[in-house]
Structure formats: structure tokens, C-alpha cells
Amino acid sequence: MSTIKKWNYVLSGLSIGLVFLLLFLLFHSSQGHLDSPELPPITDFPVSSINAIAINHSTDSIGLILHPTGIELLNQASDGYSQQKLSALVYKICHLSALRIIHPSQDTDYSLSQYGLDTPSSSISLIPAQGETMRFYLGNKNPIDGSCYAKTEHDDTVYLISPDDTSMLTQSLSQLRILDLYPPLAADQLEKLEKLQVTCDGRTWSILRGADDSGSLYHLSEPVQLPLDWQTAYKKIMEPFLKLVPDTFLSDFASPSEYGLDHPSITLTAVIDGNEYVSYFSPADGDRWYCMSRQTSQICSIPAGLVSFMTQDYMEFLSNSVYSRNLADISSLTISKNGESQEIHISGDGIYLEGRAGNQVYDYQMLADFHKHITAIPAAGLMESSDIVNTAPFMALTFTLRNGQTDILEFLPVSDRLCAISVNGNIDFLTYTSVLRDIVTYFEAFTGKSFDD
After folding, report:
1. Could you tell me which of 171, 187, 202, 346 has the fewest CB atoms within 10 Å of its CB?
2. Where is the DUF4340 domain positioned along the sequence (predicted)?
């Protein structure tokens, strides 16, 4: 590319940037009126002093009756609407601040039509228990950042309000609905989630809460039984589940078949505090999905990115190993190969754990490092019926636990590259033969003894 063409591209990019900057500055221009350090509020009323609020948008109207026990919708059943959203809206209307004053009322060199305030897009009225109704208006929005012009009824001062406040005040009635598919959970409330089951295109995986015999907080119960590493489970399952909230209401009376929800691609079942919640999902156009709660039959849409964790194969949720045991739960570890065996005894607690192999004694750090490598057994795939072999195990690991239980892992060759893993007689996964060689190498290095090949 020639130098002249390169400069043309650079100049074009700078020109575009300058255009956007000028638009932004023009929109926010105060025409000589800078931010005031003591900007007066647009509204400042105790919520308790307001009896009702009337909101009129160009598309719909919302009437709110305020009671000590909650907020009622005027001429509309309040069931299905979020008291939390309604309360936040009411508070914002009663306590609205401006980012800046664009024009004080005494200015004469401007027209309200410049800001869309001659024919406002929204009017909001506060009806107090005593005194006169206070009303303010919203005008044009900034197409760049979403901020908006505003003025009160009897004063032509033009204010600029923030994008967040604009978004809050211009919500439609449907945006105030309860859109949750199940009771909202915070990260510190996950103990209430007892079961999560996902069926996607005919394939099902499910996890259960409650320590299984491996001590894992959550474990995979379907299609195979397997402990889940907590960090992996939280990042790949729990965190996306907590964010699974639709953002757009579509209908509460349409037939599910209109949105493909009579035969959904995904069915999600969550058991929370003993109650079952079932939701259905079907792909929409673009990067969105339709969804419906079986409890409410309310149809909404949701960004595809929030649904993606349910479209993954359960193998994606596994940690670095198909077998997991806490080091502190193990009293001895034995490897058996070619008729020979080597054993390591473990005793102590916490950082005072120690291992013994013959006359060798190993401290906690050495033991923890050894345990990490020995139990790093990645899944190379799911065991299929066609992979079944009848050969003798190439190697076996025996974990004797302090509670007297024994776990036996046997590795059966399937090919030169793969072998099946039997955990207490159950064969669910394949791993790589190279993993076996690594385990033998770590054992030999740790004990100082070699196996005869």
C-alpha cells in the first residue's frame, strides 16, 4: 500500500472521529452555562408525601397508586409486576437530579423546540397528598449516550439528565413486569439451589447439590455420576445460571407454538428451596432466544449469550480430572502394575500432613504436589459401547480413605492412544495412555523405586 493511501486512511479515520466529537459537544453544549457546583434538583419529594404518579409516554401510559404496603397499578392488575422495579421508578421520579443546566429560564436566545420540549415525548406528574400536582417533561434523547433534555411545567429552564435516569424514566409498562424465570438468587444464596437439569436437543445433563461421597459440593448426576470442582462448576454453570434473566417481555397470552416453545430446543429445570421451576427456550432470529416459564406462561426474549452455557456438552463442565479426592481424606495410596505394587501412607492434618513410603518421609508441600499430579486424569471422551474391551487392566490405583472406604481406579487399554477408566467398576470415560505413563513416572520419582517393564 502506498504512503499516500495510508495517509488517506488515517485522515478519513480522524475525520469520522472529529464528526462524532463535534456531535457530542454540540449536544452537550451549555451555550456558555457551565456545570453548577450546587445544581438544584429537578424533583425532591419524600415518597411518603406522594399519593399517585401519572406517566404518559408517546406509546403508553402508566398510573401508580402509592400505598404504605406497596405500589398499585391504576386500571391494571398489579400481579406480575415487580414491586422492586416500581419502587425504584417511584424513588427516581421523586428524587430526580440534573447533570447540568443547559439554559436557565431567563435566557431568551433559545427555543424549546430545539430540545424536543415544545412537544415532549413524556410527561410525568407527581400528585401529592397535599398541595398542587408537580409535572415535568422529557424531550429529545442524545443518540450517542442516551441522555435526555427535561423541564418542569412552570419553568422553562432546560436540564440535561443522565442516560441511566433517562432509561429508568422512559420504561414501558411491560418493562416493569417480573421477568424472572425462577426466584432471583444471589451468589451467597446458592445453597438454595438443590438441582439443575438441562435438556438440549435431546441430550440431558444434571447436577445435584449436597456433598457426595467425594466431598464435592455439587456433583454431576446425569448422564454420569462425577464430582465437580467447585471453581469450574461456579464459573461454567452457577454464574451463568444466576444471570439467566430475560430482558424483554413479549406476551402473556400468545400460544407457545408461535415462538417454537411447544417443542423447545432447551428445557431447564431448577429445584430451589424444594420448589421446581421449569423454563423453555427456543432460538429466535439474530442473537436472541425466546423463553417461557411453565409457571407463568409468560413469553419473553433473552440474549443468546446468556443461554449459551446450556448449549454446551457436559464434558465442558468437567475440571482437570475425572476423579477427585481431598488429600486430607486419604490414608494410603497404592499403585499396582505388572504384579508389583508401591504404597504411600498419609497421616496428620492440615499443613502437618505427611507421607511415608518405606523409610522415606515427605512433608505436606511435597505430598500435595504429588497428589495433584497423580489425580490429574483428564477425560479424553465418553466411553462408548463399541470401545468395550475384555483385556486385563494395564494399571490400578487404590485410594484407601480415612473413613474405611476404598476407591479403585483401573485403566484398561482401548487403543495405543486411549484407555478406559474404571472407577469402582463403573466405566464412563476414556483418558490418554500418556497419562498412565506420567502417573507411573511420578510414583517412581516420589518413592525412588522403579517398576519392572
Report:
1. 202
2. 83-264
Q: Which helix (H) or strand (E) holds 385?
A: none
pLDDT of residue 32: 38
**Taking the CA of residue 405 as centre, how many other CA atoms within 13 Å lie in the half-sphere pointing to its CB?**
9
Q: Specify whether the CB–CB gap between 88 and 175 falls below 8 A.
A: no
pLDDT, tens digit, 9 for 90 and up, residues 398-436: 999 999 999 999 998 888 888 888 888 888 888 888 888
Residue for cell digits 415525548? 121
Check residue 417 and give its pLDDT.
Answer: 85
- Amino acid identity at 243: K
CB-based burial label for 203 (10 Å; 0-12, 13-18, 19+) = exposed
Query: Are 338 and 453 contacting, i.e. CB atoms less than 8 angstroms apart?
Result: yes
State the number of CA atoms in the 13 A half-sphere of 179 facing the CB: 21
Q: What is the reported pTM?
A: 0.63
* Integer Rg of the chain from CA: 32
Q: Could you tell me which residue, 452 or 350, shows the higher pLDDT?
A: 350
Is 282:259 a contact under the CB 8 Å cutoff?
yes
**Tens of pLDDT along 293-324?**
998 889 999 999 999 999 987 777 766 677 87
Can you list the alpha helix ranges (DSSP code H) found in 95-176? Answer: 163-169
Go through the chain and tell me how many residues it has: 453
Rounded to 5 degrees, what are φ and ψ at 140?
-70, 150
Q: What angle do CA 337, 214, 183 make, to 5 degrees?
A: 145
Report the 3 state secondary structure along 300-369. Answer: EEEEHHHHHHHHCCHHHHCCCCCCCCCHHHEEEEEEEECCEEEEEEEECCHHHCEEEECCEEECHHHHHH
Query: Nearest Cα to 242, choosing from 270, 219, 204, 265?
Result: 270
